Structures are given as structure tokens and as C-alpha cells.
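INTERNAL AUDIT FORM
Audit reference: QA-55
Scope: verify that the stored structure record matches its stored sequence.
Auditor: D.O.
Record contents follow.
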Amino acid sequence: QLCPAAPAEDKGSLLASLKPTDLNMLNQSKCIELKGKSDAKDYAETVQAMDTLGIPKKEQSELFRVLSALLLLGNIKFTDDANDKAVFDEQLGKGDFCKAAEELLACGALSKNLTSKVMKGKEKPDGRRSIYTIAYSAKQAGAVRDAVVKSIYTHLFDWIVEKVNTFIAGNESTPSLPYVGLLDIFGFENFAHNSFEQLCINFANEKLQQFFLTQVFKEEEVLHVKEGVPWKEVEYQDNTPCIELMEKPPNGIFRLLDSQCKAPKASEEALCEQVNETHKKGGFLAPTRLKRMRDGEGFIVRHYAGDVVYETSTVIGKATKVSEVSLLEKNNDTLQEDWLEQLAGSEVPLLKSLFSPGWEAALKAKKSASFSSVGKRFVNDLNSLLDELKASKAHFVRCIKPNSKQVKKEFEPAMVLDQLRCSGVVEAVRVMTEAYPTRIPYEVIHGRYAPLMGKEVLDATGDEPAAFCEAIAIACDVAPGDFALGLTKLFLKVGCGVFLEDLASMDTAVVVPLLVAKIAESKRKKGAEKVIGNAVYGWFLRKRYKEKRAAAALAQHRMRTLKARREYQKWSKERQERLKREAAERTKKEAEEKAMREAEAEARRKAEAEASANKKKADEKAVAAAVAKAKAEAEARVAAEMAEAEARVAAEMAENEARNAAKQKLDRKRSDSNVFGSQPMVEATLASPRGRAGSTTRRPSFFDAASNANLTEALTEAQKEKEAEKVAGGGIDGTMSLEKASSNHAVKKEEY
């Protein structure tokens, strides 16, 4: 409307020369014209509506001027230079959009704040602080441009809404008067790709669905119970956990989104991972693997109308091939102080009035309070709306989408049933059929229909409105199950209140006798009810007395049983303790006896070992003594035998010497004979020393000395062998050595 119809002085010469297709803010949808719609006519109607609202022409002109500047700001593009700093990308033939926007906004040069920001350091004690200028990249500059456009447009929208509300409110006394409010609830949205907008809209649906459930189910239950009317429980899907998932501090999705926006290195991926990790054990956040996603690519909320997948801008951009604004940027409504200061200093009165309060608040606010969240403001506004709804009497009109083709007179049963079930309409209908949705105070019925009745009816019912209402219902053939008497109201089933209108149109002459008869019957029933009630109450009291007496007897029995059980437990416990003590003492005594037996056995083993050792030593001594004695005896025997042998040898030697002397004497005599005459050698027969006989040739006498020497040598060797055997083998072997020596001696002697 603005491009073709607004005056050139309101939109500027540059915008006047452009078409809607040339503006990035308008050509994104690819739909510029609608068939049968005239933008010029719509613009005229818009201006007329503003005139009706009482907006001055000057403010209208300023409004169109600011909107024209926003359209021009949307065409500003940036590119990175060699140092990755943003610079303006001039489009040939399209003019300087930045300068044109500066002229329309009249707030000074915009280029500096679009391409850089000023950071102020912490204030020092002397009042000074450091100031830094940080250049944007092309991507960051584009985000700043969009944020400025969004902020200005939001302020303009709020300004128009305020103008409309002020005009509707009228004078100062109007807000105190009763009013009828019409609320158009957001439609539930679940597209192929969902982002921040769908999150807010679906959250509003959840809150309003909760309000609907509270009004239809919970308050109905409270009212029926309070009035003493029968109430049947109706199961319905309570979405309170889903609402807590989204807004409950400190880990609701909106709270986590605000925290992530304040973080130094904020990212959508970190937000999604934090949401999935924090609420993975809850029942209203589905695992991302169900949609073959990673935790950093999005999250899945289980709304009352179905599961909705909320994705990051990266995932949406890859799928749609269109650049998407991130969740963090959509939620961040914070404008730099430099921009607030510049826009608040605009020469356009409307623009200055919109941003001056924000600039003044920013000067007073702390740094931590400078963050402005779209999600937080949306939640607060929604809660304020619900508070206002709760303070009013709400009625609901449910709109059902019949088909997905958007054609008339065609219903898709599955789609309709799903909407009815998700919106709680099925449960609401069940409440309408099983409960008493029509409630009429007794005073209203009595005040309206009592003057129409005759004196007989009034006398029969008395001054009690409840009795009059009951008589009226019975007289009009309302089934007992179709109405119920509360404390202050008459409760009726759906469609059963029509009899009241029929009653007003009936002839009094016909109605009065009927009502009198019905009232009399009602009185008889009440009297019978009283008698029956007294009888039943008496039976109930007797039954309760018998039950109490039986209960008392049972209680006494159980108390006695309990007392006996406790005494037995006490006795058993004492017995167990006594048995434990006795067992412990017995064990201790057995241990002592065992230790004593072991000590005695050990002493006995030691004594036996000592006796055995002593016996062994004694035996060794006895053996040694016996050996020594045997050795001594052997030595004595050997010595005696040696002495005897020596004596015998000496005797033999003496005998031999004597014999030899005799022989020598004889030989000399023979030699003397030979001298005088030759005679043959005389052979002599010598006897053996032991009596052995043998004949030998007599040797010459010069061999006798050698034989004696050999004999002496043999005796010496025998003596040496005897000594060696004594050293090696003991005394017993000495006898053997002596025998051996004697044998050798005999051999020698025989040889001799």
C-alpha cells in the first residue's frame, strides 16, 4: 500500500522510484499482488481508519515516513573487506539506501552503528573508563540491521495498538463498566520445519488449553462437590507437565533460551543439547533419535495436539535452501545503547517519543537488566491475559478444520476426530452428558414462576424456594435422574430446562390442581422418607453399636493377644540371652579345658622328647663305652697275641739260632773234612716250625742273616697294618689285622 499510494513527501524520492519487487522486505514471499485487491484503495481505507481513531495527520505522515525508512534499510547489503570488516555493498542504479534512510529517520549517520559497536570498560575509581570500537563482519552487520528494523517496527505496532485501545476505551469511567471480550485463540502449528514462532504459538495453545480444561473439568467438579450433587470422574489429558517443561524456572525451555542468549559463546546447538540433556527423563520431551536427529540439531516437544519438532536455523537452511534467522536472534530483542541514543535523538517526533523512554530506562538500568527477551515478554503477556480470563466468565467456541484441502462441504473424519480428541471436546461432551451442565439458582425460578402460581401452590410449598423448584420439576414430569437439588441451585441435564418455558405458557387453571396434587404427593413422600429415614437411621445406629461392640471385643482380644505376644517375646528374648550367656560360658570353659589339655600334651611331648634325647645320649654313651671297652679288649687281646707271637717268634728265632749254630758247627766240621778230602754236600731235612714236614735243599749259611732281616721286615709291616686298621676300623678289625699279620708271618716263616 505504501509504495504505490503514499505521497512522495512521506516516503521519500528514492522509495517513490522503486517497486515492491525491488524491496527485500516485500519480495521474500514472491507474492506482490492479490487478484481483486487494490493497494491504493486499501491505503485510503487505512488512512480513513486512522482518522477515525483520532490519529493526527502529522503523526500519520511520521508513521509512513518511518515505515519507508525501514523498507530502505532492508535493501542495505554488506560485504567483508580484506580484514573481514563489514563495508557497504553499493548497488549500481539503486541509489544510496543508507543515506535515504538517514534522511527519513533524521537521527544522524547510521553507517557507523551499522558496521561497528562501541564497548565501554569498567569504570575506574577516578571516573574514567576505556572505550573500544569493535568492527562487525558482514554477517554481524546484517543481523544488526535486521534487529534495528524489527525494534522500530515493534514500537510502531505497539503504538498503533495503544491508539486503538485508547479509542475503544473511551472516557475514564469506561474501564469500570462491564464488557464482553472476544479472544481468538492461536491455531496449533506443526509445519515441516518449526522455529521460534511456532514455539511461542504452540505454548499459547497449551496455556489456553489448560484454561479450557480448568474451566470445563476442574471447576465443574468443584461446583458439583460443593453443592452436594453427584459427580462422576472424567479422565482427560492434563497438559500441566508440558507447560512446566516450557516455562517453569529455572530449566524451562524459555528460561534456557534466555540464559543461552546471555552466554558469551551462545549457539543454537548448545541450546538444543542443553534442553535435551536437562529434560531427557521427562515425559513431554521426545528423544531426537525418533526423527533421526542429533541432540544439537533440535528438540521434540510432545504437545497435547501431537509431537512438534523444533529445529535450528542451520537444519532449516539446509532443507529449504533459504537463509533462516536463528532462535537466539529471534528471541533477542535487545538494542545497543548507541542505537537507543541515536533513535531517541531523532528529529522525527514520533520516533523520538517511541525510543526516549527506553533510552532513559537504559541509563538507569544495570548491565544485567539490559537484556530484553521476546520469549519472556510473550510469556508475561500471556500470563496477564490468562489472569484476566480467570477473572471473567468464559464461554468457548471450538473451531474445527474439516479437511486439509481447504475446500467447503467436505469432511475428513479422521482429521476431525483427531482435532476433537486433542482439544478436549470429546471429554467435554462426556461431561455434558453425565453431569448437570445447566444450573439455575433457586431464587431465580421462585421469583419468576411463583407469581404465576395460585395461593394453593404457594401455601403447599411454603417459603422454601428449593421445595417450590422440586415441586415444579416433578409436576412437569422431569425424570428424577434428569435433575438434582443442590444447596443453592437446581441442577439439570442437557435440554431438561425447557419445561420452565413450557410452564410459563400453560393455563393456570390446569397447572394449579396438578401442582397441588404433585406437591401433596411430594409431601407424602417426604413424610414417608422421614419415617423410613428414622427407621433406617435407628437400624444404622443399632448396627453401628453392634459393630462397635464387636470391634471392642475384637480390640480387647487383639490387645490381650498383643500383650501375651509381647510377654512371650520378652521371655523368649531373656531365654535367648540366657542361653547365649550359658553357651558363651560353656564355650569359654571348653576353650580353657582344651587349652589346658593342649598345654599338658605339649609338656608331655616336651618331657618325652627330653627323655628320648637323654636316652639317646645315654645309649650313645653306652655304645661309646661298649665300643671303647671292646676296643680296649681288642687292643689288649691284640697286644697279648702280639706279645705271644713275638715271644713265639723270639723262641723260634732262638731255636733257629741254636740250630743254625749247630749247623754251622757241623758245616765247619764238614768243611774241615772237605779240606782234607773231597766229599759231597750233605742234604738235611728240616722240620717246619709248626710241625709241617718238608724236605729242602740246605742253603749255605751266608743266607741266614738275610732271612732274619726279611722276617723282621715282615713283622714291622704287620705292625703298621695293625695300627692303620685300628685307626680306620676300630678295635674289632684289629684282630683281623693281627690274624693277617700272623698269616703273613707264617708265610714268611714257611718261605724261610
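Auditor finding: record pair retrieved intact. The first helix runs from residue 2 to 5.
Action required: none
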